[in-house]
Amino acid sequence: MYEEMSIDKNSVIPIYYQLAKLFEGKIQRGELKPGEAMPTEMKIVADFGVSRMTVRKAIAELVAKGMVHAQQGKGTYVSYPKLDNVVFELNNFDEDIKRKGIQYKTTLIEAKIIKADEGLRKIFKINDPNFRLLHFRSVISAEDEKLAYEVKYTIYTKNKPILEFELQDPNLPNLITANTDYLPMSSKKVLQAVISSKDDASILGIGLNLPLLVVEQTIYDGQLKPVGWSKSVYRGDRYKLTSNDGWCKED
Q: Which single residue of 96, 153, 208, 233 has CA 20 to 30 Å from 221?
């Protein structure tokens, strides 16, 4: 099954990401067909010589892309492409930046444990006033120009320290997988067009009342329990929306 499939454990590319890309390729090529069961977690561990946590993070990556889904008590299955849904991707369209090959940079500016306020408790469907969350705030920039910022929250679990490399560019599904007892299985995104507030203007270094795109994402486990939430705020003059349906997409 794994002919011509391998991972490079010495690569700077995370092993879980390599593993996810290998299975993504098999799905795109039709070697794993919609409705077909994915190999079990333990089989992947044995075949590739990786940890269970690495496999869980790879599966979470595929779940986040909508390529696989979990059926409680049965396993993980390849999903059918959702060609009847409009799925938008947020793309930077500053062609000058692209031509110059300038790299984008994500800078973590805040990471801490917080006590959830009423709004966050409502999102996570928790009544406990002492409910705690991991909170992250980061800014995306290119050539010292701030283009977007993100705030992310996931359930705080004691005795699961966050590793330093995870803070470089905190990916919410991966943070949930690595630092909680939950496995992200689905998500809901809500897009809004807004104008910049004082807080937005301060963080992004822009004026008031300028156009912004806001994407709010809620991540759920297999029992549809909210286990993560994020808000991404993008400058309207630097981003556009593109819709690509299915798995085989033009670059």
A: 233
